[in-house]
Amino acid sequence: MLAQARKSTAPFKAASRRKKQAEGFYETTVFVHESARDAIDRLIAKGQFKTRREAMEHAIHSLFRPEESATKPR
Asked: Could you give the CA distance from residue 8 to residue 63 in angstroms, rounded to a whole number?
């Protein structure tokens, strides 16, 4: 059943990746320390961010592209 669910979402994920790539975004994997993950989760619980991805995008853009943030905290 889980394999079927993954299979049915695969086309949507692929389309989402292609769209982001067309917009100039690149996918990367990062490892974060448990304490950083816990801090992100606390911000999510407080409603500042919706997802870990949103929180990490905000952090990256705040540091490297402060003039144009890809996501805005809630």
From this structure: 37
In the chain, helix, strand, coil percent, each to 5? Answer: 60, 0, 40
Among 34, 69, 2, 9, CA closest to 55? 69
- Can you read off the two tokens belonging to residue 42? 């606390």
What interhelical angle do 52-64 and 34-45 show, nearest 10? Answer: 110
Residue 20, both tokens: 């982001």
Question: Residues with Cβ < 8 Å from 37, sequence gap 6 or more?
Answer: 52
- Kindly report, residue by residue over 14-45, the tens digit of the pLDDT: 999 899 899 998 888 889 999 999 999 999 99
Contact 30, 56 (CB under 8 A): yes
Residue with tokens 């669910």: 5
Where is 6: in which H helix or E strand?
Answer: helix 2-22
